[in-house]
Amino acid sequence: MEYDLKNKTRAELTELVVGLGQKPYCADYLFTFIHQKHISNLDRITPLSKSFRKQLADAGYRISSLTLLEKQTDPDGTSKYLFGLPDGGSIESVRLTDKGRITLCLSTQSGCRMGCRFCATGRIPFERNLTAAEIVEQVYQIESESGSADNLVYMGMGEPLDNAEETARSLEILHDEKGRFLGMRHITVSTCGLADQIRRMTEWTVQPRLAISLHSADDLLRQELMPIARKEPLKRLMEAIRYYQKQTGRRVTFEYCMLKDTNDSHEDATLLIRLIGNLKANVNLIEMNPYPGCPYEGSPPARIKTFAARLEKAGIETVIRFKRGRSILAACGQLGAQRLKGLDKKGSG
Ligand code: SF4
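^ thats the input. predicted complex w/ iron/sulfur cluster below
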């Protein structure tokens, strides 16, 4: 990671090149060639002198890349990408289109430590955090074959705030005007609710939109759905969100996956309104996407609509997110399901 030039912000590259006796503008060339022209071979960064390129290579510096192993596309236009990591692991990313707008769903870890019970990724073994380079590379590879994205969501495999340093670094890189130069209004980081990290986000150089995976406004049910809620009860989480809003003035999105006869009743809606009604917030109700062996079923569409209507009536802006990419297991909560099938086979074999 230390020797990966793609993993450095422009400020870090400047420090590096100046330390090697070069002019600061050489860092701009490096950054632009890596993050705008997507060059992964030092020798192709020809504005830099041959001797400096050799100096970098001799010191062990390189530019990392991901290997695209597989791409699958659902009839609804959603595509899922399987990328190989240099040390043998793999991650998945998703490209969605909606009314002509393209959204990329990015992974921040290979596997996930949070173990949410409705999510396939939570059931596969955690391998490691991704580097910032591996996060931004997902964007570059998908965009180079399918065109520019309008929005990025950090909602793929992994918990972004369990890998906060690399997540924040990737945002700084993506936002840089000499690189991809993506506006922060177009990037959403979603967390299952790590309270201390939400507070720390207020100090990040680049501020994305924040989404909270809530899924229940009842502590006990939330603990059943998301084991992390035992460490992060709602009181602690809501205090952190209030602090975040006080510091940043930003609206927060609550993600709520609709699970049949579990969190979709009239009382559940009432609890949710009570919990977030006085915040600057909106809600995304997500149609459940079961993975093979998932213990939950999705709520029927009529119940989702009734739930949404109750929230709207209470003045909470609510959007229903319908299932996408189901035939290729690319929907929310389904990433890693393919690997899960392999694990289950091993387990049963
Ligand atoms: S929902 Fe997110 S945080 Fe929970 S297990 Fe899945 S990837 Fe991890």
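The first strand starts at residue 67 and ends at 73.
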